């Protein structure tokens, strides 16, 4: 209570009940986001490494031509054996309508 | 260093670049300015390098020692810096010469440089004089020179117009006249033994008659203060000044403490950096009163006690000794300084004295940052200004009344909800502002009770003094 930045009582907003303001539907909380990994040519096994470069958070063998997966916010490394590797970031950004946009990663 | 740790070295290419590193879970882990050398746990990272509004980023897998380099970004500055993305070498050369050779003399002890220029990437800009419509005046509004007529106008490539005059220390004005008769002004304060420099690019103005003349970008024109009466296009301080001005136009804390320290260390060579730095200290580190006092003490030695921007800053000191006269008779150069003065005027109306040049411009201040700009044509001098202020004040009070009514209703219960005089206030205020018939009501609206904080907020938003707020309230409610 000593902190001036913390309100001493709840801030209550009481709108006029005759002012009808249509509220936008709040999007459901999204914690994972769609990602598509596209190898530039057919290759072997595909793996996605997490932030510590040790944990494998997703794997496919062989890696599909359009590998779709969902990941939490963070930085990842995609590796497709025989093709290459690519770092990518899942920012967690939402579209203006509240939907997620797919992150496309070409390896 | 353990086996799973590696060295990350980042070279920004710009010694003023702010470097930030975030880990694979998007948490910040380390920062630096110019260069960073850090041992970190192996893993994935993102390196961000920011110079002003320009941000570069790169992802890095730290599975071995890594050395990253970022190219220096060009800063789009009105100052013809060698490192600016909007400069030509011939502009830099013209500015160097213009700063050295006085073309007019109105006094001595200080100097003013006005340098306007067109810029296009391929030097294909308009051939018109970029100083068209620029007028130099003294603090009493006497015209001293037409810059268009008196400047060194060069049209080898994109045109430039440079003009230096020597003056007695004091406050001067620069005015831009547009073809439709409208004009705006800003202060150029010439501190003793310094050269105050203003650099302006060009922009298109859309006028009421549909024409779009190209003239000096008045609100974007940037000011520097040279203690050696010259211009150096390679001067890193000018670059630092651009970053500080950018930081001051933002409402959030974006300049790192390290960079702010650099900025304050440089102020002896460019007092403008000191003024900008003092404002940033005040905004971003308001608890650090000792640092603020040191910075403003140093500025007093550099600029003297009559500088309006320093006077405004002085109002925020705990210890106000050192400047005896804290009345802001002349408008400051920075909008943030003006805000300090108008906020203080709520508690002390004499800060902006009636009849002073500052008081005269108050009702015509334009919404611009970081510089203080105001309308100065005859139309703006007419009574419309006070009407506009009344209208703006009425709108603000309307918003306050709505918010207060909602809060009061929530706290007092349903009876008071319908029975509060504040409910009638918005309609009454609107009728006052628009001249429309007032809504039927038996009781006239009471003068709303505004706290000091409310008035300070209104002073900041409208750029008017406490006296004007009080007088306007009286006019609206009596």
Q: Helix and strand string of chain A, N-terminal first?
A: EEEEEEE
Shape of chain B: globular
Helix count, DSSP H or I runs of 4 or more residues of chain A: 0
CATH topology of the largest domain in chain B: Immunoglobulin-like
Structural class of chain B: alpha+beta
Overall mean pLDDT of chain A: 79
CATH class category name of the largest domain in chain B: Mainly Beta
Amount of beta strand of chain A: 35-45%
Structural overview:
The complex is a heterodimer of chains A (107) and B (478). With 107 residues, chain A is an all-beta fold. Chain A has a domain at 33-106: Immunoglobulin-like (Sandwich), CATH 2.60.40. Chain A has no helices and seven strands. In chain A, the strands form two sheets. Chain A has a four-stranded antiparallel sheet with strand order 3-2-5-6, with no helix packed on it. In chain A, strands 4-1-7 form a three-stranded mixed sheet, with no helix packed on it. In chain B, helix 11 packs across helix 15 (466-477). Chain B folds into four domains: 5-69, Immunoglobulin-like (Sandwich), CATH 2.60.40; 89-226, Immunoglobulin-like (Sandwich), CATH 2.60.40; 236-358; 383-477, no CATH class. The termini of chain B are far apart. The model of chain B is unreliable at 417-426 (pLDDT under 50). Helix content of chain B is 34%, strand content 24%. In chain B, the strands form five sheets. In chain B, strands 8, 9, 12, 13, 16 and 19 form a six-stranded mixed sheet that branches. Chain B has a five-stranded antiparallel sheet with strand order 11-10-14-15-20. The A-B interface holds A 12-16, 49-53, 73-77, 87-89 and B 23-26, 41-46, 59-63, 406-407, 409-411.
């Amino acid at each position: 209570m000593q902190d001036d930045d913390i309100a001493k009582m709840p801030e209550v907003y009481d709108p006029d009940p005759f002012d009808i303001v249509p509220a936008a539907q709040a999007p459901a909380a999204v914690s994972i986001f769609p990602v598509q990994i596209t190898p530039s040519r057919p290759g072997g096994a595909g793996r996605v490494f997490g932030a510590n470069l040790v944990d494998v958070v997703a794997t496919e063998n062989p890696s599909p031509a359009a590998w779709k997966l969902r990941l939490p916010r963070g930085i990842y490394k995609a590796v497709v054996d025989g093709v290459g590797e690519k770092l990518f970031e899942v920012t967690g950004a939402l579209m203006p309508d509240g939907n997620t946009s797919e992150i496309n990663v070409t390896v | 260093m353990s086996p799973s740790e590696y060295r990350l070295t980042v070279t920004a290419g710009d010694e003023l670049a702010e470097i930030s590193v975030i880990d694979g879970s998007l948490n910040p882990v380390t920062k630096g300015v110019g260069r960073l050398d850090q041992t970190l746990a192996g893993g994935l990272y993102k390196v961000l390098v920011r110079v002003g509004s320009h941000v570069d980023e790169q992802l890095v897998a730290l599975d071995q020692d890594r050395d990253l380099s970022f190219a220096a970004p060009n800063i789009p500055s009105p100052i013809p810096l060698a490192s600016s993305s909007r400069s030509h070498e011939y502009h830099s050369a013209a500015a160097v010469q213009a700063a050295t050779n006085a073309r007019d003399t109105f006094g001595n002890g200080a100097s003013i440089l006005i340098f306007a220029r067109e810029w296009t990437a391929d030097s294909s800009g308009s051939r018109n004089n970029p100083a068209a419509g620029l007028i130099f005046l003294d603090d009493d509004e006497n015209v001293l020179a037409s810059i268009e007529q008196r400047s060194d106008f060069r049209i080898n490539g994109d045109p430039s117009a440079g003009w230096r005059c020597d003056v007695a220390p004091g406050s001067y004005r620069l005015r831009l006249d547009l073809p439709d008769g409208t004009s705006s002004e800003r202060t150029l304060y010439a501190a003793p033994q310094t050269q105050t420099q203003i650099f302006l690019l060009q922009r298109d103005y859309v006028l009421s008659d549909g024409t779009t003349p190209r003239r000096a970008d008045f609100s974007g024109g940037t000011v520097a203060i040279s203690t050696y009466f010259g211009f150096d296009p390679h001067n890193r301080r000018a670059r630092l000044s651009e970053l500080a001005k950018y930081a001051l136009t933002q409402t959030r804390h974006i300049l790192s403490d390290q960079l702010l320290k650099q900025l304050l260390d440089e102020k002896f060579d460019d007092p403008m950096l000191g003024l900008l730095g003092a404002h940033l200290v005040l905004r971003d580190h308001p608890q650090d009163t000792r640092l603020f006092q040191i910075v403003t003490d140093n500025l007093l030695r550099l600029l003297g006690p009559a500088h309006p921007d320093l006077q405004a800053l002085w109002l925020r000191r705990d210890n106000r000794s050192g400047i005896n006269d804290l009345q802001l008779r002349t408008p400051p150069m920075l909008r943030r300084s003006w805000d300090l003065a108008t906020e203080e005027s709520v508690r002390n109306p004499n800060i902006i004295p009636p009849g002073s040049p500052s008081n005269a411009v108050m009702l015509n201040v334009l919404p611009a940052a970081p510089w203080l700009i105001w309308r100065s044509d005859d139309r703006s001098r007419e009574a419309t200004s006070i009407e506009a202020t009344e209208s703006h004040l009425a709108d603000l009070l309307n918003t306050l009344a709505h918010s207060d009514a909602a809060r009061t209703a929530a706290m007092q219960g349903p009876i008071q909800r319908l029975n509060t005089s504040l409910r009638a206030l918005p309609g009454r205020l609107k009728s006052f502002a628009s001249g429309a018939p007032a809504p039927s009501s038996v009781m006239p609206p009471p003068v709303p009770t505004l706290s000091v904080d409310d008035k300070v907020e209104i002073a900041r938003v409208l750029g008017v003094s406490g006296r004007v707020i009080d007088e306007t309230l009286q006019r609206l409610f009596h």
